[in-house]
Amino acid sequence: MSTRARRGMLAAATLVLLVALGVLTLVLLDGPAGATGPAGAARAAAPANWAALLGAAIAVAGSSIGAGLAVAYTGAAALAAMSERPELFGRAIVIVGLAEGIAIYGLVVAVILMERA
């Protein structure tokens, strides 16, 4: 993968992260402008624990981006190694699976933070 493609993917991921954080902030602060009635009253009465939800969103976004980059590098290396020595298939799958575990750690952290919200 070229440097230009990596920069483009990183810029796109950053843009998605910023949009997701903006939407999350909008929803957590007050919701849509016309949100009134029983739901608005219940939201006003409940304490807003927006920091835990924001932390969960950042944990999932960051770990997903990190896992994507890790799988990209390890997957390419695994394919190159398997093209020369096919018996490395099992080891290569384990290494790619370990890289995928980064995203699972982010999800676990998000679930723990969501329980506190």
TrEMBL record:
Q: Which GO terms describe its biological process?
A: proton motive force-driven ATP synthesis
Q: Name one GO molecular function term.
A: proton transmembrane transporter activity
Q: Where in the cell is it found?
A: Membrane
Question: What stretches pass through the bilayer?
Answer: 51-80, 92-114
* Domain of life of the source: Bacteria
Q: Where is the V-ATPase proteolipid subunit C-like domain?
A: 54-113
Q: Which GO terms describe its cellular component?
A: proton-transporting ATP synthase complex; proton-transporting two-sector ATPase complex, proton-transporting domain
**What Gene3D superfamilies does its record include?**
lithium bound rotor ring of v- atpase
As for membrane topology, the entry says:
Multi-pass membrane protein
| Stored InterPro entries | ATP_synth_F0_csu, ATPase_proteolipid_c-like_dom, F/V-ATP_Csub_sf
SUPFAM superfamilies annotated for this entry?
A: F1F0 ATP synthase subunit C
Alphabetized UniProt keyword annotations: Ion transport, Membrane, Transmembrane, Transmembrane helix, Transport
Q: Which family does it belong to?
A: Belongs to the V-ATPase proteolipid subunit family. Belongs to the ATPase C chain family.
What protein name is recorded for this chain?
A: ATP synthase F(0) sector subunit c
